[in-house]
């Protein structure tokens, strides 16, 4: 969790909004630091987290999490974190016989696109047990990242359907939050990715877009972050509000500052 980012978003683990979809987006840079922020943030907020990790291994997220003050291993052992490791699961799907249907079963299908089992996994993970005592504040679905599903042959419409079902269940029914990362291919002619990004942007309450610098690499400024607060229920964009900051990623923190106000420049 990065305190400076919490300040920009006006949130703390003790004071968070519920029922929101947050879209993380990166263009010409690596926006994974945003994923690590929200993962550690919601664990510290005592939320039940379902993490669909399609990019990195559990050990990778755990190492970064320890730098941010959380132990994913401990969170998983106490039942607070349910971690779906896409890399490891895919190997098992292709080379071992599965006795029971797997959330990533679509990888073995001739025409990838049916994400029903993945949705049912999220549903079973986050829905409270009938009559059971609730140990966690509220449920959170975190996906890193949705663009991988497109690379695996899933159509953008299918991914949008999956996210719509998840948003209805997590945000509306359970009053929890959904956070998902999508890459912006930017003028690369990737129509499917553009459809996915556009569709999720219209549904999102908060959009965090990490961008590389137009001037190229700089050791003191690693990129800029555009923050857009939206009200999807409003018919116009008049209620939208946005801010832009530049940032520098450090070992255990991320520093944010106004454009041209980097400490290295002043």
Explained architecture:
With 266 residues, the chain is α/β, with parallel strands linked by helices. It is built from 9 helices and 9 strands. It has a 9-stranded mixed sheet, with helices on both faces. Strand 8 (241-249) and strand 9 form a beta hairpin. Helix 6 (116-126) packs parallel to helix 8 (156-173) and helix 8 (156-173) runs parallel beside helix 9 (191-203). The protein is globular and about 55 Å long. The chain starts with a helix and ends in a 9-residue tail after the last strand. The relative contact order is 0.17. The mean pLDDT is 86.
Draw up the topology in text:
Layout (H helix, E strand, L loop, with lengths): L2 H7 L11 E7 L4 H13 L3 E6 L4 H10 L4 H6 L3 E5 H10 L20 H11 L12 E6 L2 H5 L4 H18 L3 E7 L7 H13 L2 E6 L11 E7 L11 E9 L4 E4 L9
Parallel strand pairs: 1-5, 1-6, 2-3, 2-4, 4-5
Antiparallel strand pairs: 6-7, 7-8, 8-9
């Amino acid at each position: 969790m990065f305190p400076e980012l919490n300040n920009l978003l006006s949130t703390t683990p003790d004071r968070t909004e519920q029922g929101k979809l947050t879209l993380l987006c990166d263009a010409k840079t690596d926006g994974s630091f945003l994923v690590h922020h929200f993962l550690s943030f919601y664990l510290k907020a005592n939320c039940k987290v379902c993490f669909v990790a399609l990019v990195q291994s559990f050990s990778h997220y755990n190492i970064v999490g320890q730098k941010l003050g959380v132990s994913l291993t401990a969170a998983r052992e106490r039942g607070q974190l349910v971690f779906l490791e896409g890399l490891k699961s895919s190997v098992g799907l292709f080379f071992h016989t599965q006795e029971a249907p797997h959330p990533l079963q679509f990888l073995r299908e001739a025409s990838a696109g049916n994400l029903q089992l993945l949705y049912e996994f999220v549903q079973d993970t986050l829905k409270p047990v009938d009559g059971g005592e609730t140990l966690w504040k509220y449920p959170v679905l975190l996906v890193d990242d949705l663009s991988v599903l497109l690379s695996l042959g899933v159509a953008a419409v299918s991914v949008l359907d999956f996210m719509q079902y998840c948003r209805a269940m997590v945000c509306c029914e359970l009053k929890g939050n959904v956070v998902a990362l999508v890459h912006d291919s930017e003028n690369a002619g990737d129509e499917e990715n553009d459809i996915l990004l556009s569709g999720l942007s219209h549904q999102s309450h908060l959009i965090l877009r990490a961008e590389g610098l137009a001037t190229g690499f700089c050791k003191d400024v690693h990129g800029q972050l555009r923050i857009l607060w939206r009200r999807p229920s409003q018919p116009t964009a008049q209620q939208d509000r946005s801010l832009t900051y530049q940032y520098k990623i450090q070992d255990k923190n991320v520093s944010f500052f106004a454009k041209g106000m980097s400490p290295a420049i002043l």
